[in-house]
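> Could you send the Transmembrane ascorbate-dependent reductase CYB561 prediction when you get a chance?

Sure thing. Input:
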Amino acid sequence: MESHAGLAATPRALPYYVAFSQLLGLIAVATTGAWLGLYRGGIAWQGVLQFNVHPLCMVIGLIFLQGDALLVYRVFRNETKRTTKVLHGLLHVFAFIIALVGLVAVFDYHRKKGYADLYSLHSWCGILAFVLYFVQWLVGFGFFLFPGASFSLRSRYRPQHIFFGATIFLLAVGTALLGLKEALLFKLGAKYSTFEPEGVLANMLGLLLAGFGVTVLYILTRADWKRPPQAEEQALSMDFKTLTEGDSPSSQ
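Output:
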């Protein structure tokens, strides 16, 4: 694909993979809503339906929106680095807030019902993913958006930031799959093995979540699909005018 007026060319296959990831993500969110509506009574903040707020918020926040935040640097290839960083950070903020609502919902539901907290592998992985996500955002904000961090320090931290971002996303997807299986076993028990309609739909949801995660990670790990360095990168990446040393930063 040819570039225009000095703009970086977009790899030919990249838009199709991004579109496919969005299709999978949106269908996964819709399927989550359908599962909760058809077989779990819908969602509400009061009563037994409060629990259903948890899976919906986690799929939207820690999976779909987090995945989209990771793709920002692949999709927006010619916008200024600061604009892209702000969009990346805002998507993570929205994901965190929605996930926080889901977390509060399940703890509040357990408290009202007198159920135990944090005893399952799903809950342990979920708390770990949420805490790491929050810490990752705080550290990322401190290094890349908040004034003060030098360019050399940012450059040394960037590979760790990228690695932990992908790792937390993968952990979130795995945790969702654990929670989905746990919810099915609690309700269906032995009937799960008889191909109950709810079990089949939930299994399809699990495949959609896994497919979305794999597609996002594939896009992120294609070295030739990374945001390319630009001639004006050093000037564009001077977040709040704190960049005073070094060469132009490499792309994420």
